[in-house]
Design brief:
By secondary structure, the protein is an alpha+beta fold. The protein has two domains: about 55 residues; about 120 residues, Nuclear Transport Factor 2, Chain: A (Roll). It is built from six helices and six strands, in the order αααααββαββββ. It has a six-stranded mixed β-sheet. The relative contact order is 0.13.
Length: about 180
């Protein structure tokens, strides 16, 4: 419940804001103290939501940060650090028919070689969504090379190793029609 509050703080702010406006208007027209007390309770609840959303780090927030951190490390050319977020073996799927289990080292080499040979200066990720947490955490996002048009639609399945530590076990990339990437072996 508490993680739901932290993950949906914006929705709660909107709902509590509407209630506060209604109570404030009702108090203004009737001058009855019960509406002012209700308004005070709502303001207190807003404060509680603010505190919870600033202090609680939920699994969803950890997963989004893991994707952002991986992209940041790749942009800093720290491939070893970026690929620590991947399992020892990753089931990789892209381009129809190209799928299979790939060692983390082969995936890391593919990323390094692709960035060097294609002269890619960096990547961008956006629209990071946690589709589910149970039974398997699934994160979807868009990925784009900063120097190229088009983007890939990505979907990753992860496992949790410890508090705040996640590893990609399965990765599906739907590449734009003009992108050709050799499948790592």
């Amino acid at each position: 419940m508490i993680s739901w509050i932290a993950d949906n703080a914006t929705l709660l702010y909107l709902l509590l804001g509407v209630i506060a406006v209604a109570l404030g208007l009702r108090w203004r027209t009737t001058r009855q103290g019960k509406y002012l007390i209700g308004l005070g309770v709502v303001v207190g609840l807003v404060g509680l939501v603010v505190i919870l959303s600033l202090t609680i780090v939920t699994a969803r927030q950890q997963l989004v940060r893991a994707v952002e951190e991986t992209a940041r490390l790749i942009n800093a050319k720290n491939f070893e650090g970026a690929f620590r977020n991947f399992g020892d073996k990753v089931f990789l799927e892209f381009q129809p028919g190209d799928k299979g289990e790939v060692p983390r080292e082969a995936l890391q080499k593919l990323a390094q070689d692709s960035m060097r040979s294609q002269k890619i200066t960096g990547i961008e990720v956006w629209n990071i969504e946690v589709e589910s947490l149970d039974p398997v955490p699934v994160v979807s996002f868009y990925l784009r090379a900063t120097d190229y048009p088009g983007y890939a639609n990505c979907r990753a399945e992860l496992t949790q190793l410890g508090e705040g530590t996640w590893r990609v076990q399965k990765l599906k990339l739907v590449l734009p029609g003009n992108w050709r990437v050799p499948f790592p072996r």
